Fold this protein.
Amino acid sequence: MSLMATKSIERLKAEAAEVGEHSLKRVLGPVNLVTLGIGAIIGTGIFVLTGQAAAAYAGPAIVLSMVVAGVVSALAGLCYAEFASTVPIAGSAYTYGYATLGEIFAWIIGWDLILEYALGAATVAVGWSGYVVSFLHDLGLQFPAAFSAAPGTVVTLADGTAVTAVFNVPAVLITVLVTMLLVIGIQESANVNSVIVVIKVVVVLLVIVAGASFINAANLRPFIPANTGEFGHYGWSGVLRGAGVIFFAYIGFDAVSTAAQEARNPQRDMPIGILGSLAVCTVLYVLVSGVMVGLVPYSTLGVPAPMAVAIDATRGQAAGTLWSGLMNSMPYVVKLGAIAGLSSVMVVMMLGQPRIFYSMANDGLLPAWARKIHPRFRTPHITTIVTGVAVALASGFTPIGILGELVSIGTLLAFVIVSLGVIVLRYKRPELERPFRTPLVPLVPSLSAAVSLLLMLGLPWETQLRLIVWMAIGVVLYFAYGYRHSELRKAETAAAGRTTR
């Protein structure tokens, strides 16, 4: 069997329609799917990485980086929406790759998506830890600095002394709690997520409305700081690198597609969930990033809780005004909103990863235990627990900068493959029913693939090297297990045997 053998759309749909002990529960409507997307998108990217990207790469022009990343996401979102309505199967880009480009590409995408979902959740857990420690400090409670960050991270205390961290305990604790919630059920997880989404959208709107009154125009000059002589450090190349790094902020709309087999009407509702959540978040992101760099010098935002730093700076300016009471309480509101918001991102990210494993196990590319469904909760409980353990270890031991860049490059690679897959499927299967159609094919998917690739190349070379090493490990595992246990391979071998007889 060729490594490029594809799985037919008809077979995929038939598998999705099966009901039994290995099937997922269809309970999600369009509102659930939109809030799942918003729940995943508004998180570490805006609460943490935006400030760090402004400080290190783009300066006030982080607003332009947001626009670039938003355009790339919109192009990719249109491609995901077509696939999600045409092939409404759990597995997201992995399933789309299997239907268009072949098994080896499907495996590569599935392996690559671990960088997006599992490491994405780990990145969020580290950001959550930073806000929790900061919030406890505001309440007069000092969390032990040695247990608040990855090993080797130097944590500066309030008195100016420094402590070298050995483990990130809060990040592990939130991972355990989210894992327990996801094992209990998809509907319960979606309901919790919807409540939290309302809270964090209100917080972001408060920051935009209240903070806009205290913007200092001097903080926005120069809007695009001069390049330091090194690619990616300010100037236009810094805008590009900033877009690649904070692209993580937009990750989440594609996580909606992993819940396709738990949607009541996926052909109609998946595009609504994907594009609706992306549109809402893009507007909020551009506005809130502009407010942040307008409130304080961009160089001060390279911290674990940059939004809190920006809001803290308004306290003195608000004294004696109508805004005084609100601005004095805003640091607490922002941190509570961030803590709640980051929790919901983890829910969606850690919901997505087990469903990728579930689809891969159904195809024989992973062991059978990875497709087991809990008899009572109807969730992939084993892979959810495995994902939880992996996320806990990554968040406890790895710095947020490395995690964020790995997630961005992994997601961008998935976007490249999905975008090309739309073109391939249009050519190979033009007769397929497509409830949602990507406009201007092949222009839109070609642009999506090209710009995603450009953002990948704008990331640090160390991140590109880590991706290559990760992909090499994945290829070895495929030939060691997946290639020999593929259900598609077994079916084609059996068919060839019957033909020979």
